[in-house]
């Protein structure tokens, strides 16, 4: 238990060997942790201050407390890493040390038996490799003072367990098993498998229950500020069925509750590879040194196999109230089925970097503090089907295929994108942010899902390519049902049913094919194109609703093809000026101006009365004695009409 010292006088018995390492370091770690824990009491005292304090001061105190709490938890995670490094170092060199110190002719091999280590992180029971799996009975025999059966029938574990490479620990019991991992303000325990196997196996009638436990309160530990017990498999194999895991983990993914992470060395529990060497292929752990001279492709003198991965299977289980519901990284072939993850402080199911070939089926993730399902960068070939993400504070599903680097970097990571992830026949309902969010990546497929509520339904951005969004049903999004934006290329939005939203499909600065979708009751636009969308297409869509326009291309740049869309049932509420702006184009305005000019000139000519073309040459007085020429009055005076035209002439001989 770390960093508690209540087991400092624990004797070694039942054939175990003890190794004491770094007591000064342990004392320093305890003092450092005590120093870290002292501000917690101060913060608690500050919280008890009179309520008359100003609101701004209260907020500042809360922010300071949160910052101190975060620093404290980060320090605990670093301490966990140091503890694991110490244990790994001892388990790696202990057999060699035993071999070197063995007396001539002696066959004693005490390091091949389970032993206990006293490190800066507290006491740790190390389970060494053997053919049979370790069971509950073995733990009772090996740790009678730290693995104790309580009156209620539950088992309380008060020291760490480390399952070494080649060893297997199976936690199961015919009548059901309840395992309580000691976790309180003075320390907590962990069960860690490094390259070995860890199995939690119950039945439907007799499940396994694992929880953190505070012996002082007699309840699970719900305070994460001082650390909390957790389970972790580093490499090897992890299996869990008919198990309920609750209130485990703190701060980081690897200490988040139930975490499955890879390792940087080969192990015996990973997915099996080829049993025999094939020409030109290396076995796991093999390094081939080539001779000088011409080097065959690839251009490398040393060829090292890829890192080993953790494998695992989780079924018919519940993960409740963990820091991270389930955290997986550097894993190959993980399978999660018929499992519920809820009430996590952070995300529900997290597939972190280098998780590949994972299958998630019939799994529910609800009421989590972050996303329901999160596929981080460098995850690929993940298939999610028949799952539900509901009432999560973040997204229902987040799929990130962005590269680990966009150029030269200190870590030297690849600039290639990841992808080939699929989510189908699943439900995203009532999540706080989006139903689905696709961040970059290639060949991502979102098919036949149901998305209800949220700010937006399906959002793809950050340069995703070859995206397929097909046959989904979206309803009651506050802004946009489907949004394709910020550099997405080759997106296919086909056959989706969209109901009751502001904008059905929104495309911005991307290229998308919007074909054969049915959009009902949109109250702004059916399909909108904004920005650099040249090469996009909207065809065969049936759009009903009320708003400025069914097909909005007024802000589009580049050629957008619109054809065979049914918009007869759309009620256009745009103003006259908006319609003019919508239909106006340079050529349209030019031809309209020409036609108007012709009409105006024709109208003016028609109204203009020019009179007789030779009226100016007519005699002033007609020969027959009638009315004077030009319509003059008697005595040769010009008529008012002639005066108005400026054509009146006064005869010289007028009387």
From TrEMBL:
Keywords: Membrane, Repeat, Signal, Transmembrane, Transmembrane helix
TM region(s), chain numbering: 583-603
InterPro entries, A to Z: Beta_helix, PbH1, Pectin_lyas_fold, Pectin_lyase_fold/virulence, SCF-Subunits/Alg-Epimerases
Domain Right handed beta helix: 313-401, 419-542
Residues annotated as signal peptide: 1-48
Ranges of Basic and acidic residues composition bias in the record: 624-645
Compositional bias ranges of the Polar residues kind: 410-423
Keyword Signal: yes
Name of a matching Pfam family: Beta_helix
SUPFAM superfamilies: Pectin lyase-like
Ranges for region Disordered: 391-423, 612-655
PANTHER family, sorted: F-BOX ONLY PROTEIN (PTHR22990), F-BOX ONLY PROTEIN 10 (PTHR22990:SF15)
The protein's name in its UniProt record: Right handed beta helix domain-containing protein
Organism: Catellatospora citrea
């Amino acid at each position: 238990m770390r960093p508690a010292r209540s087991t400092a006088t624990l004797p070694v018995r039942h054939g175990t060997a003890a190794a004491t390492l770094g007591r000064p370091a342990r004392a320093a770690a305890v003092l450092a942790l005590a120093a870290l824990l002292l501000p917690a009491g101060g913060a608690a005292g500050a919280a008890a201050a009179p309520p008359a304090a100003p609101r701004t001061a209260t907020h500042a105190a809360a922010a300071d407390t949160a910052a101190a709490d975060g620093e404290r938890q980060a320090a605990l995670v670093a301490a966990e890493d140091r503890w694991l490094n110490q244990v790994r170092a001892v388990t790696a060199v202990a057999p060699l040390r035993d071999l070197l110190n063995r007396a001539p002719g002696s066959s004693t091999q005490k390091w091949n038996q389970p032993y206990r280590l006293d490190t800066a992180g507290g006491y740790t029971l190390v389970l060494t490799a053997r053919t049979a799996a370790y069971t509950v009975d073995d733990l009772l025999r090996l740790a009678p003072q730290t693995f104790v059966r309580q009156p209620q029938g539950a088992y309380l574990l008060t020291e760490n367990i480390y399952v070494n490479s080649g060893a297997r620990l199976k936690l199961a019991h015919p009548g059901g098993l309840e395992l309580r991992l000691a976790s309180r303000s003075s320390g907590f325990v962990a069960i860690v498998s490094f390259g070995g196997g860890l199995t939690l196996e119950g039945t439907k009638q007799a499940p396994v229950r694992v929880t953190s436990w505070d012996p002082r309160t007699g309840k699970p530990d719900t305070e994460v500020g001082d650390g909390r017990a957790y389970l972790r498999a580093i490499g090897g194999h992890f299996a869990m069925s008919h198990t309920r895991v609750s209130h485990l983990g703190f701060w980081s993914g690897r200490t988040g509750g139930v975490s499955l992470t890879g390792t940087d060395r080969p192990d015996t529990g990973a997915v099996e590879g080829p049993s025999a060497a094939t020409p030109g292929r290396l076995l796991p752990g093999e390094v081939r040194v080539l001779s000088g001279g011409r080097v065959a492709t690839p251009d490398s003198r040393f060829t090292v196999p890829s890192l080993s991965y953790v494998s695992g299977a989780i079924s018919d289980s519940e993960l409740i109230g963990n820091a991270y519901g389930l955290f997986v990284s550097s894993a190959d072939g993980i399978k999660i089925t018929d499992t519920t993850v809820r009430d996590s402080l952070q995300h529900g199911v997290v597939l972190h970097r280098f998780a590949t070939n994972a299958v998630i089926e019939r799994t529910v993730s609800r009421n989590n503090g972050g996303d329901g399902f999160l596929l981080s960068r460098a995850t690929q070939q993940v298939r999610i089907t028949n799952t539900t993400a509901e009432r999560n504070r973040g997204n229902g599903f987040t799929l990130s295929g962005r590269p680990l680097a966009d150029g030269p970097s200190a870590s030297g990571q690849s600039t290639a994108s990841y992808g080939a992830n699929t989510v189908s026949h699943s439900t995203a309902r009532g999540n706080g942010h989006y139903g689905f969010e696709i961040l970059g990546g290639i060949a991502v497929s979102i098919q036949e899902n149901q998305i209800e509520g949220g700010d937006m339904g399906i959002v793809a951005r950050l340069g995703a390519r070859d995206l397929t969004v097909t046959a989904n049903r979206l309803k009651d999004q506050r802004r946009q049902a489907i949004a394709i934006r910020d550099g997405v290329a080759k997106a296919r939005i086909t056959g989706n049913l969209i109901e009751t939203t502001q904008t059905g499909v929104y495309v911005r600065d991307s290229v998308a094919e919007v074909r054969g979708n049915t959009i009902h009751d949109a109250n702004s636009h059916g399909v909108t194109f904004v920005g650099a969308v040249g090469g996009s297409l909207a065809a065969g869509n049936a759009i009903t609703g009320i708003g400025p326009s069914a097909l909005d291309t007024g802000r589009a740049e580049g050629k957008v093809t619109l054809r065979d869309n049914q918009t007869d049932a759309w009620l256009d509420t745009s103003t006259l000026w908006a319609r003019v702006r919508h239909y106006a184009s340079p050529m349209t305005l030019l031809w309209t101006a020409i036609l108007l000019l012709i009409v105006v000139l024709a109208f003016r000519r028609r109204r203009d009365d020019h009179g007789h073309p030779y009226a100016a040459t007519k005699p002033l007085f007609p020969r027959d004695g009638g009315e004077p020429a030009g319509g003059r009055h008697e005595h040769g005076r010009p008529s008012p009409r002639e005066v108005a035209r400026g054509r009146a002439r006064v005869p010289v001989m007028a009387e």
